[in-house]
Amino acid sequence: MIRERLGVNSMASANFFDGLIGNISPVVALYKDIVGSGVRVECFPGGRSPYTGNGGTFATADWHSNEGVWKIYFPAGAHAHQVYHELLHIRFKNVEGAPVMAASIHEAQLRRNVEELNNDFDHAYVVPLEIATYSEAAVYWEADFTRVLEGLPPPSSEQVNVAQRKITLLRGWLILPNSMPTATVTHLFRRELASGGWLDAANELIHRVRVAGANKALAVQAFREALGFDFPPAAKVTFLI
Ligand SMILES: [Zn+2]
Q1: I want to staple 239 with a disulfide (CB 3.0 to 4.6 A). Which of 33, 79, 99, 208 is the partner?
Q2: At the top level of its lineage, which domain of life is listed (predicted)?
């Protein structure tokens, strides 16, 4: 059915996705949209990333700057929403034009933190669209954020503890209310934010992030203001196109 609708020229692209579990039509359509806008994407069902080794359990996407191509690796029987998720990352960066936030390689710890935070800002865009198309993806994200909440240290008046709790809760809030507004984990995050006195700032943050769209520098500045301190440090991060 899908091949008939897409026509002969798109048969090759549809074939990559034939073994996926679930509805592959949104995957094929998004892939065609991205490739049609001039972005190069190669798919490797059953392959693993030579960079990270990932792709054996979950889908993963690497940008190969030397070749100017994205490569997506995924298990042959992966869920369609995993591949859709990777394609949304690619669309946000290469079609919408969202830069990558990065820190100097000389600051290893900060660099890792900034990489994770950059991924959260991408997920503020990716995850709501992923779940809107594949409701089954919510199960994965609910479990993921439940683990985040369980790893949160209990509240104390120590400055480091307060900062850590606030960063973790705001990072989750970038994604939860827009993708799973009624989920239990979203209610739990809301309750923790409220008990810290941060819920209004958190809601203002997600409004500003939505307005910022692909302007990640603007979105990150809204995050700093919601936090009330300079993280990630403005002088130490850059935004790479
Ligand atoms: Zn992702």
Answers
A1: 99
A2: Bacteria
